[in-house]
Structure formats: C-alpha cells, structure tokens
User: Fold these one by one.
Assistant:
Number 1:
Amino acid sequence: MKKIITYGTFDLIHSGHIHILRRAKEMGDYLIVGLSTDEFNMKKSKEAYYNYDDRKLIMEAIRYVDMVIPEKTWDQKITDVKKHDIDTFVMGDDWRGEFDFLHEYCDVVYLPRTRGISSTRIKNNMIHLRDDLY
Ligand code: C2G
C-alpha cells in the first residue's frame, strides 16, 4: 500500500484544497493529512475561521482523505513519515524547496497550486460583500 502525506490548515475548504487532496491521493492508496492545530496556526500567523475540531470533521468527510493527524510543530514531519511508513510527501508548490530535507525519508512532490482561490481571498470577499450590503 502506497502511503501519501500532506499538511495544511485547510480552512474554509475550497476547490484548491480538493484539487491537491485528489492529486495527492491519486499518487497512492492511502492519504494522511497533517491538519494544523489552532495553536500551530498561531505560530504560522494564521487565524482559521473554523477551529481544529470542525476542520478535522470536514477533512474526514472528504473522499480522498483516509486519516487526519494533528500538525502541532514544524518539526514533526520526519517523525510522521517514519511512524506512518510514508512513501510520498506532497505539498502545493508555494512550498517548493521548503521540505526537500524529507528526500532522505520519502519522495517529495510539489504540485501546482490552484490559481485564483484561497481561504484569505474568500474571507476578504465576504468582508467586501458585508460592507456593500450594510
Ligand atoms: N493549495 C492549493 N491551491 C490553493 C490553495 C491551497 O493547492 N489555491 C494547497 C496548498 O499549497 C497546501 C494545501 O492546499 O499544500 C493546504 O493549504 P493551506 O491550508 O493554506 O496550508 P498552509 O497554511 O500552507 O500549511 O507544514 C505545512 C503547513 O502546515 C502548510
């Protein structure tokens, strides 16, 4: 069984997230997602709209996702790759090069991001919509 892992906040799930999860799953048989905890998001200077439990519930409902584990630190990836016997690590290419140190333990693949959509853009559009309405 070929096992894949990817990491992220996955807030306000959108087509960009689904595309990378689908492509990651298509590279193997089993996809693990390291989902950033609320505390880790603060370290990433990210404030998710949904808390960890809600984002985990949503991720586990996505057909491409087989397991969700908490991402608590930048430094857990080698441990995770070994612990879960991962064959391939996948991330969007906004991270290109950042995780090449994992080459020693598994394949490392950076996939093109889906253009024109992001959780930040969704939040900003909602703010503009509210301002236009009221
Ligand atoms: N993504 C994408 N296309 C988009 C938006 C996001 O392909 N339009 C991908 C990102 O490249 C990433 C994944 O979806 O691989 C999750 O995106 P985020 O939730 O923004 O993840 P990020 O905050 O970059 O966290 O240790 C790694 C970090 O936890 C990554």
Number 2:
Amino acid sequence: MQYSKMNDLDLAHKTVILRGDLNVPIQNGAVSDFTRIDRLKPTIDYLRAQKARIVVMSHFGRPKNGVDPAFSLSFLPSVLSSRWDAPVSFASDCIGAEAEEAVKALQDGEIVLLENLRFHSGEEKNNSAFAQSLAKLGDVYINDAFSASHRAHASIAAITEYLPFGAGLLIQEELDNLHMLLGTPVRPMAAVVGGAKISTKLSLLNNLVKKVDYLILGGGMANTFLLAKGIPVGKSLVEPDMLAETNQIIASAKDNDCQIILPIDVSCAAEFAANAPHSIHPAAVIPDDLMVLDVGPESIENVKEILQDCKTIIWNGPMGAFEIQPFDIGTNALAKYVAEKTKQGALKSVAGGGDTVAALDGTNSSKDFTYISTAGGAFLEWLEGKTLPGIAALMIDKKAA
Ligand code: AMP
C-alpha cells in the first residue's frame, strides 16, 4: 500500500495542520538538543514556500491530569522562530476558541504553535470528538512526527478521518532510509542493543535474533543475560523476573544462527555517580559490592573485531551509563569506531532512539552514520516489523482495505 505524501497535495494558501514531535529534551530550563526541531525545518520551509498558514501541534512530556504548567509548550515559539527563521506565535490551548482565534490571525507563511496536545485526555484515547476539534483548525493534515507514529493518538490517527492527509518530508525520509538500509540488509548484519532494561525491549530482542547474525548486548540489559548464565552481578541493575524471557531469547538465537555477544569485562563502581571510583573486572567475576556501569576495554576490542566482519549495523541504546563519566567510554569508543568504518565505506550504520542519538553525539559521531532516525519507540516498533498506526493512517487506500 502507498501512503499519501504532502508534496502530492495542493497546499497553496491552505491552512495546514502539521503534527510534529517537539517533545524536546530540556536541561536546566533550556532545550538541550535541537535535532527534532531542526529536522522539521525542511517541511516548514516547503509549506512556507507554498504560502501555507501553518498550525503546528505536538505533545510534550507526560502530563497526567490535564493542564499542568510544567508541561506547557509556551517556552518554545521563540526557539522555533530562531531555528526555523520564521514567525511563530502561540495558542494557549490546542482546541476551542483560543486556538481558532490564533489560527484566524495567521497570514500566509506564518506559524502558530498550539499548546501541549496531552492537556486533553482525548489525545491519548484517540478520541474522535477531540480529533474533530483539531481538524476544525485547518484544511489539510500533515503528519511529520515519525517518532510519535507508533501511537494511535488523536493527532496521529483519528484526525486523518476528517481531513485530506499526507506525510511530511521527515517521515518520508525516515521510511525511505529504513526500507533501503534494513529492508533487505547487506550481511553479515549486527545489532548493538544497550540501555537500561530488557523488559522495555523484549519484542525487539525477540525479533532481532531472527534477523541479525550478531546481537551485541551492553548496558544494564546485558546484566540480566549474565545472570541467566549463572553469573552473579553484584549491585548492578538487573531484572531477575525476566530470566525466563532472557533464556527464551538465548534459545531462539541458537535456533536462528544468531550469536549473542555479551561483555567480556565490565567497568564497575559502588554507586551510580559521575566520577565514582571505578575498576575493571572480568564479566564472570563481578564483585558483590559493586555495580556494572559500562563495558570494559576487552569487550570493546571484541566488538570491534566482530564488526570488522559486518556490512550492516543497527544500534539502539547505550553500552553503559553514558550520561556520567567515565561510564561513557564504551559507548563513545564503539560509536567512533562505527562512524569511522562507515566513513570508509565498509559499513552501513543506522541508529535510532532518543538516548542513542544523545549518546552518539557525545563524540560527534552521529554525523558519520549512514542514517540516524529521530525516533525511539517508533524506530524499534518498525524494526519489530509492526505496522505503525500513524503510518497506517496515512495510507491512500485505507478505506478500501
Ligand atoms: P534505554 O532508554 O533503555 O535505551 O536506556 C538508557 C539508559 O540506560 C541510560 O540512561 C543509561 O544511563 C542506562 N544504562 C546503561 N547501562 C547501564 C548500566 N550498566 N547500569 C545502569 N543504567 C545503565
């Protein structure tokens, strides 16, 4: 099935509702990473060139009980305005009179950002009435929030029932690249999966062992695999209640000729803290009073050796607690190596996931990867082979299907 593309629609002088993902990371009250904003710019530029009036909507964080100033998007218009080099106003509600008036005031080429969609419970419930209230604001709906398209929310799914719709340029780029690089990957193929827990990536791991030649594990999740092999992991982050699932992944890997690569040595400390005194230990002998916070130097060399053989790599999740030094060493070393091999043309590399991209940016390596997806959950679900509700909603002949 084909999805509808915004560039096939007549958008001239139209009021276009654009669903973006402006759920940007904040540190000390300021945006700490502009990736999501910057990667929407081509779509914004395209729409402005069409002299469209642009109504941007997004979620931000996870407000639980309606309006909560801590999750307001009101800080963002000035940031958008400078990154997009365009006039951006703000509507303090995403539906109703406030939103309608703000939209009415727009001139051709101007942008209004609506307040956080999740201040209304109808958003996450994919509620039709809420979707209709959003749809009332414009003539055409464009989804360019790939990273939110794994969720059947009103601004992603239900709204397409009420307006002509199309995919923005970022979604098109994401889908094109993921299909090209991972649809029929050049082998051998490795997946590097790190991060905190197995429980959040269970179906990904189950799916990957059927697809890749090497599953390289790091981060907290590797601890549960070590425990499954009977190795005590001291004070480390571990999920003993996931041992049955872990053993099942190990068995499925065997059945599918996928080698699971675990850390050989690990960097440990007594507490999860920056610059905590640390020491390197064989992964088979983790001291009782310490916790694993990164992979060790031998593990890095081992992974590099394996990757010498590989032609395609996908990466999700850091190898260690990369936010605190020196437990970023494993992630940084591997990121640099993958970037280098990619630059040499020896490897196609794809990474995705908010933390992953932040981790790779620690060494400025991401620019040399073949493709960086803006998405975390959506990237993982795409990899799992799932149909993303937000993409299904953009299919041209979905009514006929
Ligand atoms: P995820 O969102 O699942 O990709 O997990 C990312 C988080 O995993 C980061 O915040 C890391 O600090 C954390 N992490 C990675 N390795 C470890 C580890 N060995 N122990 C504790 N946390 C870890």
Number 3:
Amino acid sequence: MKLIDSCNRILNYLRISITDRCNLKCQYCSPRHLIPKLSHEEILSYEEILHLVRIAVQLGISKVRITGGEPLIRKGVHEFIQELHQVDGICDISLTTNGVLLKDNVDALIAAGLHRINISLDTLDPEKFMKITGVDAFDRVWEGIQKAYQAGLSPIKINTVALRHFNDFELEDIARLSFAYPFHFRFIEYMPIGMSEQEMSDSLYTPEIKQRLTDRIGELIPVEHQITDGPAERFRFEGAPGEVGFISAMSHHFCHTCNRLRLTASGQLRSCLLSDHQEDLKTPLRGGASDEALSAIFLNAAKMKGVQHGLTADMPVRVSGQMSSIGG
Ligand code: SAM
C-alpha cells in the first residue's frame, strides 16, 4: 500500500518538526507573550521519529525535511540526521533553519548527510531583523549563510515572508542578491496560522511582488519546472546566477501538486498545513501498536487530505495550531 490520496496525489514527502521551541520570536510566526511549550515527554524522541520514518518509507515516503521550531536548537540533531541517512529508501534530507546557529553546525550537518538547506531571512537590515525576530542576530545568520555557501551546500534557498510595512521596499534588494549569489530567493505569502501579532492586512501577495521586481529590476524569466521543485514558481533575471521564486499559498494555492505529510513535534500527523485535521500517531506508538496499525494511520491521513485548503486571500480563517509545532 502506498500513500496516495483521494485526488491521486502521491505523497512522498514528510516534513518533521523536531521541536516547537525557537530561538527567535518572529512576529508573524509566534506571539511575543509566552505560550505553553511542549514538555520533553510530549515531544517525540528521535528513536520514535525514526521508527515512524521507517514505516513511512514502506508507504512511499522518500524525502524528508527537518524543521520546527528551530531544529538546530535540539540536541543530537546531527546524529539524528546521520540515522535518517541510513534509512533505506530516504533519498533526500533537507533542513529549514533560521540560520542563527548555522555557522557552527554546517560542517557537522554535511558530514551527517544533509543534502539541502533552506534558510529564513526576512530582511537585510540588522535593526529590522531585531524588530521582527526580537533578537539581534542578523550578522550571525548572514555568516551562517556564507558558511553554508562556502561548504558547498547547493542549492541554498533563502525564504522571505513578504509583509507590507515591513520588508515591502526591501524585496527588490533581496531579489538583486540573485546577481551576486547562486541562491534561490523565495518570497512567501503570509499564512494565518496560530496565534501571532501579524495583521492579515499587511499580507503582500505574489502578483504585486512580481510587478515590483519586474518594474525595478527587469523581466522575470521562467525557469523550467523540475519534478523535485515543490510549490515555488521559479524565475531568474537575465545574467543572474541565482533565482527568485514565489510561494503563493494564499493567492494561488498549489494544493493540486501537494505531495506532503507533516509530523508535528508532538507526534500528530497532518496532511495539510492549513487544516487542523490531524491523526494521533504518538499514543498508539507509545502504546505498543504494531507497524501495521501505525501504517493504517498514515494511510488514513492520506485519505483525509483535502482537495484544497480552505483559506483564501479575501476570506482567511485562522488555522489554530502553531506553525512552530506543526513545522513550517
Ligand atoms: N525555525 C526555522 C526557520 O525559521 O526557518 C524553521 C521553522 S519556521 C516555522 C519555517 C518557515 O515558516 C520560516 O521560513 C518562516 O518564515 C515561515 N513561517 C512562519 N510562520 C509563517 C506564516 N504565518 N506564514 C508564512 N510563513 C511562515
């Protein structure tokens, strides 16, 4: 049996949130006031995650992304990646990080078997960085990006959530970096997930960003879509070694191409980031359920995957789970 949903989408990609904790407090991701964090016992252990990954591989999962919260703050992440690397059938291991701890981790991550990395960076201005994340760490992130580049990780994807009144006038500066670096700079539309202090009215959607970049930099030349691309629409400017991309979950959803399942830090399986439906894997796993019973939960999650998410740019409803726990 394979993970194929009711729309015949083949689900071969598992995103794993290994912690709900983060060393940044991005305004659009988590509220500044303290929200309860999962206790150590509530979070799946690496052994438990690996057990579930082995089951998922039997059902067709071949790609995994490690995320959070901030994955690099969880102890033992290198060893975990090494173990993942040894799971037969996993052919792609990637990581999403805010980059704060990247510089000192790059070599160990590569040695452990990490294939690809996405780094989140919403501004090139250290003061604005502090304003949006609550932490003065722009330089550390930039050094981490440079270190990942020098170490040969490729492609390096830089993710920027586009927000009016925050980074709208910087988006072209970020896009211009594609002339200097062979990175993929991707602009992400804000999604209303969990508690956050972000005004929905500050969302900036792809058509407006594309227009700004075209007016100020030049024609966006489409890059041929590869089967491994994921949801980003890819472009480059004439003469640039890098790319710019757009992830338009709100203005132009890409649900028909979605191949993902998500394992939350607390062991819940979600078939859609933007739906609160989830299947509990942790309770049966800890209760000694057979691999067959756990496989049935994976298959059920696939069956429950909606045709498309219910959020739209003009009538957004908030998803109640926190992004840090679900895994961005
Ligand atoms: N800590 C890591 C990081 O910052 O990359 C991984 C987790 S973070 C939740 C993953 C990505 O989700 C980041 O690029 C972040 O900007 C993005 N993100 C968080 N909340 C979001 C939201 N409400 N809408 C769109 N993207 C969001």
Number 4:
Amino acid sequence: MITASSSQTIFALATGAGRAAIAIIRVSGAESGQILKTLIRGSLTPKRASLKKIIHHDEVLDHAVVLWLPGPNSYTGEDGFELHLHAGPAIIARVADALTDLGARPAEPGEFTKRAVQKGRMDLIQAEAIADLVDSETESQRKQALEQANGALSNLYNSWAERLRLVLANQEALIDFPDEDLPPEVEDALRAEIDALHHEMSEHLTDQRGELMRQGLTVVIAGSPNVGKSSLLNSLSGYDAAIVTHRAGTTRDAIAVDWVLEGVRVRLIDTAGLRETEDEIEAEGIRRALFHVKQADIVLHLIGPDEELTSLSSEEVAIRTKIDLSPAPENMLGISTETGLGLKELRNLLKEKISSLMAGSGTPPLTRARHRAGIQESVVHLERAQKATWPELRGEELRLSMHALGRLTGHVDVESLLDAIFGQFCIGK
Ligand code: GDP
C-alpha cells in the first residue's frame, strides 16, 4: 500500500466540480516553487496575480491567473501557489496530470488545513471552524464559524489553560518548598481560582447555542390526529410537504422540513397524531412522534376546537387550531391555516423562543461534541482537585485538567509550564 507522505507537495481542486467559469487548483509543499517555475517557465513576485501560460512538455495547457504564495505566511505555512484556470474538465485533468508528473500528489480531505495546524498557522478549534465556514448555510452559522476561525473560542480555552498553568505553578511551589515562607494567601488564592475556573467552565457547558446554531434546532408539531399538524407544517414551510386529509392517522412517519428563521436553521417536524391505536404502523408512528417530542428544542402542541388543554412541559407551546371554526380561549395563541389568522403571531413567537434559546452569556459558545467532552473532562479533574487533600494529588488533577484543555486546541505544552513555575517564583536553585 502506498501511504501519503506528509512532506510531499500536494494539490487539489479548490473550487466545486461542474460547469463554471474558473477552476482554482491549489498546490502546497516544499517543491511548489520548482513545480511552478517549470509550469510557467519563469518566476513570480509573491502574492501578485499574473496571467501566465501553463506549459507542460512544450504544450500550452491553458492561460491562467497564477499566484505564488511562499511560506511561512501562507494558509498552510508552506510554499504554495494557485492556478486560476478555465474550468473545463479537460483542462483540470491535464493540469492535474502535469502536477503529478512534476512530483506532486492529490491532497487528502482536509490536508491543507491539517498542514496549517501542523505548521502552527491555526489550532484545532480554528481548523474545525474552517470546516464549519465551508458548510455554513445560515447567517448565524456563518457568523459563529467566522468568530471561531478568528480565535474567539481558542482564546477562551487558552485563557483558562493559562490560568490553570499559574494555579499549577503555585501548587508545585507549595509541594516543592513546603518549608519556605510562601505566604498563606497562596493556598487560599489557589483554591479560589480553582473554584472560579470550575464555575466558568461549568457555565460554558450549559451553553447550548453553539451546537444549536451549527446543527440547527428542532421544532416538533405534536397533537391529536386531525388537529391540523400537517396543515401547519405546510403553511409554515410554504410548500406541501405533508399530506393533509380529514382522515385521522394519515401521518405515520415523521415528516421533516428544513427552514431558516432568524438566520437559524430550524428542522420542522410533523409527527403522527397521538392517540390509542390498534394499527401497528400507526403505533410505530406514535412511538416515533413521542421520541421526537422528547428530543425537540421547541414543541408546538396543537389543540383542536373540541379538545381540553392537557398539562404541558416547559418546551411545549399550546396552540389552538382551526380558530375560523371557533375562537381560541383567552391567553392561548390561536391559528387557522384556512384563513391564515394567527400564523404571523406564531412565527413571531417562534422567533422569540429561538432568540431566547440563542441568548448567550457573552463568552463564545462551544460548537461540537468534542469541545463538550474536552471541557467536561477538564471540569471532572478540577472537581477532583477541589476535593484532593494531598497537594501532590491536587497537582496531578490540575495537570490532567490542563491537558484536557490543551488537547482541545492541540497545544499541550510542558515547556510553558516550566516557564510559568520558574518565572513566577524566581527560585534560583
Ligand atoms: P393532522 O392530522 O393533525 O396532520 O391534521 P391535518 O393537517 O391533516 O388536517 C386535518 C383536517 O383538518 C383536514 O381536513 C384539514 O383541511 C382540516 N384543517 C386543518 N387546519 C384547519 C383550519 O385551520 N381550519 C379548518 N376549518 N380546517 C382545518
């Protein structure tokens, strides 16, 4: 098996496949300069666009705008270049062949960004944000990914890691020099700082915004059969996704429609009507409906004209349907998909709910399960440090807590710990 070498020069089509005016091929690696020279029969000023003939084996393959992007201040940190070609598939194929011929190989998925991380151009959290930026479909996803790519979340984690480093430095000093005259406040300050960090990180874990924005949130429409659930899904989403009939029990499986409200991706789910049934397929639909209700961020619980309001959980919003037939009781939102009455109010109510779910604490939110797991691990070690009676054990837990944070950004750095220890105390031994 041939394994891809991380030192080899790589290339990839950076623009999408399909009919387009321009295709960009990106190249990165130590041999980029030599390869470019061969292809354009000359050299270029860095970061300046120039129109050049791309020549291989004495044949002109295309006229392209070429950018020479030498490291270390390039995306990957390596030497690289870009060819802005005409997007014909035959041109792209010939240029790819030429690059291979000259010693480059096709890049693996994410390899440019992986190299950027390895060269210290960005950390892991920023690299994840680049992937999110490319995938962003809504305004809130774009903003969040851009902030994260600019280092907002990394800065938060680095500042916690830095504070932990100082706590650890103090702890190490208490362990190593128990007889020296370290002021008693050192121990108190150390405990207070561990408590403060524990509090801040635990708060961060309760913040769901990042994951909600990235993955979108779920709004489930639930209620008895025939209450008007499918009609509401169709009205809100603007097209006939669900079948509407007067026959009860028509919606067997959940129907999902993706929707954007307030710049946030919303998955709107219509579920099977909740009722007692002998029908096996309908019963399965109801089981799935209850599952969706449990997972939902917001549940719109529809109530028909001849139904009583049952007790609702805090995520559930009661909505009276078919108000063209009879009015909604006071203090309950009423809608009619027949006349459109109340739908604007319902949209506004959803917008408010979404805004309050997205309301944050001012710190950047975590966006992935990996971040949550890392912070959780860090918090567990802080809790153990809080309880540890032996200073050595507390030191070890602090170290593990700091490492859990370091793994998140990809910086686990023992040298800087040593610097913090010796720098702060001027021990001179
Ligand atoms: P579901 O079983 O809860 O999904 O309900 P449907 O959306 O399929 O609607 C059941 C029946 O109620 C259909 O005949 C709809 O035309 C009717 N319906 C739905 N919404 C309204 C409404 O706002 N007013 C009136 N009068 N009828 C409605």
